[in-house]
Structure formats: C-alpha cells, structure tokens
Amino acid sequence: MVLPFIPAVFNAAKKQTLAAASKERSEILAAAEEIKEWIVDIRHKIHEHPELGFECGDTAELVKATLTELGIFFYDKFFAKTGVVGRIGSGNEPFVALRADMDALPLQELYEWTHMSQNKGVMHACGHDAHTAMLLGAAKLLQERYEKKEFEGTVFLIFQPSEEANAGANSMVTDGALMEAQAIFGLHVTPSLPAGACGSRAGVVMAGSSRFGATIEGLGGHGGVPQAAIDPIVGSAFVITSLQPIISRETEPSDAQLIDEMLLKQLRLLSVNLSKARHNRSVLVGYYHWLRPRRYREQYHSRQRGHRWHISLRRSGRRHC
Hints:
Layout: H1 6-34, H2 36-48, H3 57-70, E1 73-74, E2 84-89, E3 95-101, H4 128-147, E4 154-160, H5 168-174, E5 183-186, E6 208-217, H6 232-250, E7 257-270, E8 273-285, H7 291-306, E9 310-315
Parallel strand pairs: 3-4, 3-5
Antiparallel strand pairs: 1-2, 2-4, 6-8, 6-9, 7-8
GO cellular component, one term: endoplasmic reticulum
GO molecular function, one term: IAA-Ala conjugate hydrolase activity
GO biological process, one term: auxin metabolic process
C-alpha cells in the first residue's frame, strides 16, 4: 500500500533539488560574467601569437604563467612536447579532466584588426585560442570554488598541442596526461549556435580523419587518336564514383561516416590527354571499422583490373585529434 502523502514528499524534494541546481547555475554564470574580459584578453594574446602542431611553446608558457598567477598546481614537465596538465582539488576521487587544444592552422590572416596574427602564415582560424582561454577561465572559477570548499574531488586541466595534425591527443595519452581521470570533457566553438548556447548529443559529434592517396597512371597521347592513349582522369572518375556506395550501401545508417575526395591534381599534360593524375582523399569517420580500409583497396584494384590504368595506393597522413 502506498500512502497518499509519499508522492507529495518526493515531488517536494525534487522541486528543492531543482531549485538548488538552478541557484548554483545562476551563481556560476554570474561569476563567469565577472571574469569575461579577463578571458577575452587571454584569448586575444593567444590569437596574436599562433603556433603550429607540437610547437606550442609560447602558448604553453602563457598557460603555465596564468596557472601560477591563479595558484593552481601544474606538473613540472611537458606532455607531447609542449602540452601542459594542471590540477585542482584534493587529489582524491572523483577524478575529472577538462581538455582544450592550443594549436593553430597554417593560414594567413587577411582581416585586419587590433589582435590579428603577428606570425606570418599562421592563424587561429579554428578557435583553439578561445578553447585555451575558456579552460583557463574554468580553472579560475574552479579554483575559487575549491578554496571556498564548495566542491570535492580532483579536476585535471589538459592543454593539448597538435590537434590539427599528427594525433596530438594520442601523444598526450601516451605521455600520461590523463592521470587518474575517470571522465573527460571537451568542447569546440561553432558559428552555427548563438553565443551562450551549447549543443551536444549521444554518440559521435565530430569526425576524426585519416588521409589516403592514390596515383592513377595512364598513357599520354593525342586527342585525335584517343584509342592509343589511356586517360587517367576517366579512371579517377570511376574510382570516386565507386567509393561513395561504401557509405550509402555498406554502412549502417546510424554510423557517422563520410568519404571525401578532396583533390584531383593534374600532374603532366601531353597534348589533350593526361599521362598521370593523382587525387588525395580524406576518409572522415566517427570511428573506424576493420572493413573500411580493405574495401577502399578493393575498389581501387577492381578499377585497375577492369581497365588499363595502373593504380598505387598509399596512406599519406596520420589520424587527427
């Protein structure tokens, strides 16, 4: 028998919990608003001095100097060459990690403004300057709450280089940057959401990438006698067309996967026909199945057997993250 007052007690407790959570959220947002300009100033400094790949030494020094200013412990070593890991809390469970990337892209910033890049040919075009500044802002708020004994446990602050290339995350993990973390959180800015909004979903959100390339060789000749030539552009078109059904007909609809043929480059022109063409393609997937690389090879070689082209495959890049 359920006594009639028990549901009312549960509902009252639920309302109190929600009210407390709402109050805490409002307090955190108000505290964040107070340090907004401090965070923006850090972002501007990082944006002015972008760095590539694992060469994020200046950014790492800025991170360490800021953590020192805030009275936050950081490990006296670099992870993945220039990565930094800080720590807030008691050193006891639960262990949670927050992660931000620090590297920029090899692009020239064309828009002239007060804080434009001072490093020629390098630019923070993907928002990693904001990510690093935001994590330092979160560190400041967490340190203040820890000093007031408002949370228990331990938070690791992970500042990672080389997200754009060369699998910096893997190098950070190999070097022990995750420490005892039982959970890890990261985010990425996006222009598709209004300021102040956050988006998430269960499962895959963004794709990782691995790069592959293929060289398709034919035989040059004159446009007036095409039967005496072997056109590699036609071969490239066959290959590109045959790869797409791997996603549309051989992959579960719920799997987040994409094939992107990025570049078809003409290497040498003899009369009208090309003797060689190369296209590099990136395979962007949420996660990898053992089937995929094998199927790519099968599609390429089946085109080679069915026609007169010579096709050679290579893996030309490492997974990004």
